[in-house]
Fold this sequence. Notes:
Elements: E1 3-14, E2 17-28, E3 32-36, H1 43-50, E4 58-63, H2 69-72, E5 76-79, H3 91-101, H4 106-119, H5 135-147, E6 153-157, H6 165-180, E7 184-189, H7 192-198, E8 201-206, E9 209-215, H8 216-222, E10 227-233, E11 245-251, E12 254-259, H9 265-273, E13 277-284, H10 288-296
Parallel strand pairs: 3-7, 3-8, 5-6, 6-7
Antiparallel strand pairs: 1-2, 1-4, 8-9, 10-12, 10-13, 11-12
Amino acid sequence: MSHILAVRNVVKTFGSVRAVDGVSFNVREGTITGLLGRNGAGKTTTIRMITGIFMPDSGSIEWLGASTAAEFRDRIGYLPEERGLYRQMKIVELLLFLAEIKGKRPADVRPAIDRWLERFELTDKRNAKIEELSKGNQQKVQLIGTLLHDPDLIILDEPQSGLDPVNMVLVRNLLRDLKNEGKTILLSTHMMGEAERMADDIVLIHRGSVVLEGNINEVRGSFGKNTLHVEYDGDGAFLSELPNVKRASIVNNAAELSLLDGSDPQKILEAAMGRLRIRKFELAMPSLEEIFIEKVGTETLTEVVR
């Protein structure tokens, strides 16, 4: 599978802060690549170099069939984390304007606007001003504007930020559909669970550097099957204190237990059965969240540059 984008050892410094420190990765055509990391890791700065907003201090960025960001810009659909909409414009007026910026004629995109508004359940608001919309609907309008010119590469920076659960599912299903249509998506997020649901490949950035990358299944497989998923009835707080449990994530009546190397899961099961009614007990590959913690720890970042 060919690469639509190749980032090669890019560096970006702001004053004394090295926001991006030698980042390299590829984005395969027709896939979803998750660009992962905490807020402050360097994800947004990397994206701004890919889109040509920033120039790297060193390193290079290569686009399939293009030698410069300007040449590739109209083939990119970019949804920034910081939303920017003209609040006094009506939805349709704004979408026509955004399409025109990308070189599309109004007559060519009006049918697509109708389809997208219907898909996002905004048809009845087509003549509403942006300022009259809820935050979630504003976000959907900007997402439509990102996709309206039919880009080859779709770059989304925290696309589900601020969305309610229903709209999060809508966006999740949309990304899967776009991938099935052959689109290439670079998804920047700190939500590991969302990346795990959707991504083919991942790039994990920490403190401006890539600490892990590759096919998501191969990455998870390389960490072995040392994670227990347990669902139960009862009080499972004690599970984190059992011998051979390295880390535990316990939410409601479900636990994800990371075991020490060489641990016997049967011992965990025996201890749990004595105190809980077990509904599920599964030995599996670790989640991306567990891998993230394994690679970078749990310390809080203090950098302000992203």
